[in-house]
Amino acid sequence: HHHQSNVAKITASIGRQLGLSQERCFDLNIGSLVHDIGKIAVPSQILNKTGRLLPAELSVIKLHSEYGREMFKHLSLPLPIADIIGQHHERMDGSGYPNNLKSNSICLEARIIAVAYTYGAMSGDRPYRHAPGKKAISTLIDRRVTQYGPCVVDAFVEVLEDDTEIQQL
Description:
This protein has helices at 2-17, 22-34, 44-47, 55-62, 64-72, 81-87, 108-123, 135-142, 144-148, 150-162, 164-167. By secondary structure, the protein is mainly α. The longest helix is centred in the N-terminal third of the chain and has 16 residues, at 2-17. The radius of gyration is 15 Å and the shape is globular. 36% of the residues are buried.
């Protein structure tokens, strides 16, 4: 899936910018490739719907991170894959889902994926809206403390300034 590979490229770059070890960047890459795996349990008519989602449809989509976490929670892996999948929609101020986690309760990998996912989602067209373009960057910067984490957003902005491949995603 094109979106997943873009998110993986962005997360790898953010991880390197943050100085994460090669092993942790590898784990981050794996997490970014499967972060939305829970969407296989969401009906395609909801995922592909054009126009605004109804509140009940949005509630079903929001379950995908929990579905994905459940798929991986019993696997014995050297990386916190279940946490990465389950937390990628959590936000620093507790406004995210599914568990309204705050701040450092959210693993760093999930916070990195949240930034990459948000940028990827906002910089590309969706079935229900056209891409807002450069607004994606200003949204991340505006919400760097409340939702995404300053160090992650700052690293992403530095990556974006230097990496022409990511600029073109």
